[in-house]
Amino acid sequence: MNLFPAFQTILYTISTALLYPVVALLIILCLWLLVYSGGFIAEWIKRTQFRTNGQLSDSLEMIQEQLALPPSLSENLPAHITAYTRQIKNIIAGSSVFQEEKVEDLNQQKQYALLREVDKIRLIVRIGPSLGLMGTLIPMGTGLADLTKGNMAQLSSSLILAFTTTVVGLALGVTAHFFSVVKERWTIEDMRHINLITEAMVKKMVKKDIKAEKL
């Protein structure tokens, strides 16, 4: 008993059934990347207009004394860094004996969250071309089946779909790769700012503890 034709039919059915989910995912990723592009461009413009290189390190003493960012920095830095600074201030203002541990935990959580944002766009770099390849091969299979039947119109439709999904998948990968490279650079810069702010505010906490011990 030859089971190969049965296996071939099963695989062909599965492959054909995957075409619609693949096309749907490509459309969803295109829409998601379009929405993401809007926020990316807005952040790009803000970071281009307001460069904080050198300004943050020059304001560390003020940050240490006030436990807050100066207005000029809070307006220019990303909102998540300003929110992080307020969280650090709340921890230092508390009376917990594990303040340093809480600050360290918050710092690690923040860095993990920043890296996770980069990972989201990195996934598109891999998923986009992979879906494009699947969207190419599946219609090619059905197109060859139509060719044996002499259905040239259906073959032409399958080839158009195959080439279109290839282009869309590659476009997703290239665009997402560009976003991921720039986003990674921004993440490194934000992590540097976060660490500087943390060090400055923790020194304030250490000074407060030393004064309390002397009393």
From TrEMBL:
Give Gene Ontology CC terms: plasma membrane
**Which stretches are transmembrane?**
20-42, 123-140, 160-182
All copies of domain MotA/TolQ/ExbB proton channel, residue ranges = 108-181
Q: How does it sit in the membrane?
A: Multi-pass membrane protein
Cellular localisation? Cell membrane; Membrane
Listed under GO biological process in this entry are:
protein import
Keyword Transmembrane helix in the entry? The reply is yes
Keyword list (alphabetical) reads: Cell membrane, Membrane, Protein transport, Transmembrane, Transmembrane helix, Transport
The UniProt entry, under Pfam families, shows: MotA_ExbB
What is the name listed in the Swiss-Prot or TrEMBL entry for this protein? Biopolymer transport protein ExbB/TolQ
Q: Which organism is it from?
A: Desulfobacula phenolica
